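On clarity, I found the account of how folds are encoded harder to follow than it need be. For illustration, here is how one protein appears when written out as sequence plus structure tokens:

:::
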Amino acid sequence: MKIEEILKKSGSTEFLYYKSGGIIFSSGDAPINHFYLNNGDIKLISKQGYIKQLIFGNRHCGEGIADFMIFTDDVYPFTAVALSDCEIYKIAIVDYLLLMDEHPEISAEMLRSMSKILYHNVQLSDIYFIQDSAEKLISFMNYLKRNETDQRLYSFQIYLTRKEIASLVGLRVETVIRTIKKLEKQKLLKIINRKIFY
């Protein structure tokens, strides 16, 4: 049985809607609930004032949000923000742990998810330490495109903003903009209506 079906049948689960830009939880909150993304996209961010923003990652439809927090006594180290209108299952962590005991497939899926996130973070940290901005962006775009069946040039649209790219790879926004223009002149990517195609 799929996780969303198990959650739907549980009497402990609450179904929530968030508009784009809505806050699911904030940095510093105690994790008393588990959140599962049934529909939509969210990002996990750390903010320093109004300008600086570090993106820890995105979560998509069919993924738990901060699964690892179920097993810690710490507060959330980031804020979860809806990137689109979202449908989210919310269940108390104590009830979710009971469901995990009853349905081993939930534990298996959570381990797969956490392994995928750990792999993602290791890959991004390798890219983060590349010094040359053009090489860094090419490595990052190769990473984003790695699972696409169509690997032809310009076949893949990058849905991240320049600011989000800068945050993920450790560059200034101005450097990302300048490097993207340089890569376009080299015909390594294409810009159509301000969207990046790689």
Remarks:
- The longest helix spans residues 104-128.
- DSSP finds six helices and eleven strands in the chain.
